[in-house]
Amino acid sequence: MTDTTAQGAGTGALASPASSSDLYRAVWRWHFYAGLLVLPFMITLAVTGALYLFREELDAILHADLKRVEIRETVAKATPSAIVAAALDAYPGRAVKYISPAGDADTAEITVSADTGQRLAVYVDPYDATVLGALPDRGTVMWTVRYLHSLRYFGPTVRSVIEIVGGWSILLVGTGIYLWWPRKRGRGGVTSVRGTPKTRMFWRDTHAVTGIFVGFFIVFLAITGMPWSGNWGAKVNEWANGNNFGYPSGVRVDVPMSDTKLAEVAPTTWSLEQARIPQSTDAAPQARDMGLDRAVEIIDGLGLHRGYTIGLPSSPTGVYSASVYPDDLSQQRVVHLDRYSGKPLVDMSYADYGPLGRWLEFGINTHMGQQFGLANQLLLVVVCLAIVMLAVSAGVMWWKRRPAGSLGVPPMPADRRVFRGLLAILAIGGIIFPLVGLSLIAMLAVDLLVIRPLGTRLSAR
């Protein structure tokens, strides 16, 4: 949170007794490294995260021609089957998903695996089944922002950076709190900002004061973002979901199961990514599919929140898989219907998740700005702006402090024994988050084998 430029190597006006201690130097040095590695990513995550907080509002504006229709209260809405038929008439292929309108002014969305080989999201007026147009599946602006935020565009290897950034962000906050600690300095640089933007002191104080107020939120966002990481998140997901076909422990599944996962059929919560889809029990040649209209009737009768998604059956043993994940966690629900009898084969909600699953989903929901409505969104926007300010102030502060021709790494402590406690903390973090541990080892090797000898040679000149 603070590079403490003036405290570690700078002006006497800001020096404190602790600034010359070996422990202080060790903490400052690793705070510098954490910032060097993390801050560029944190800017990207903060900007894309701030935008994604308002994904529904922005998509409704940016894609208003596809997502919004005029409310016609006196007009009966088209049946779901007619809406799907209209989508397939305009874009021939196989219907994969039906997404019901979330409100009276919203369109229905049909996912079509087109004959051209492309997967499309087709938007249909729910009143008269007029096809308004199509986009590539998950092709809205906000889906693009989401993929940028999670680094999904760049493949699984690069996505591992999310886990590393999360771990180093926690280290950044911890070391920043130590460097910020008042040490009888008074309010300057603790709760107030001194100087003007022309001075290094101004940027140091801005960095420190902003960091201490936003540090808790950085840790919270780092921890709640970890479930999406490709390595740690995937392993914890398997453990948290239990072994009962991917459903949380306590949810009995005593019907035949397919090998298809819910995440392959429709967007789902983190806790249900591994959940497998059940199979319809009567696939005899004479058996008749009840049809989408009847499936929607049953789902509405079960009380699912509006805007639910129905994954359509694609085989004789397929099911109608309805799922909805509104802002209110208690309204989250997944229902799988036998395609012939309409019997619910699995019906589960947020209350059925295990304790870990509920806590993680609560954290994820808050992370995405959903749990507490507009207040949640506005608070996290402020946090995102503060994170950008932290990164900018750190860069300006470093630039003003660094010696010409040098990286400006904080000095090594004279007594290397102070690293023992620090390394013990780093080791614990590395055990919990293995990729973070590997990155810590790599950074330690670079510090000892490259940066330290280079600094010694420059000092000898």
UniProtKB/TrEMBL annotation:
Keyword line: Membrane, Transmembrane, Transmembrane helix
PANTHER family reported for this sequence: IRON-REGULATED INNER MEMBRANE PROTEIN-RELATED, PEPSY DOMAIN-CONTAINING PROTEIN
Domain of life: Bacteria
KW Lyase (keyword) present: no
Full protein name: Uncharacterized iron-regulated membrane protein
Segments forming domain PepSY: 79-133
InterPro entries cross-referenced by the UniProt entry: PepSY (IPR025711), PepSY-ass_TM (IPR005625)
Regions that span the bilayer: 30-54, 161-181, 201-223, 378-399, 419-451
Pfam families: PepSY, PepSY_TM
Lineage of the organism: Bacteria, Pseudomonadati, Pseudomonadota, Alphaproteobacteria, Hyphomicrobiales
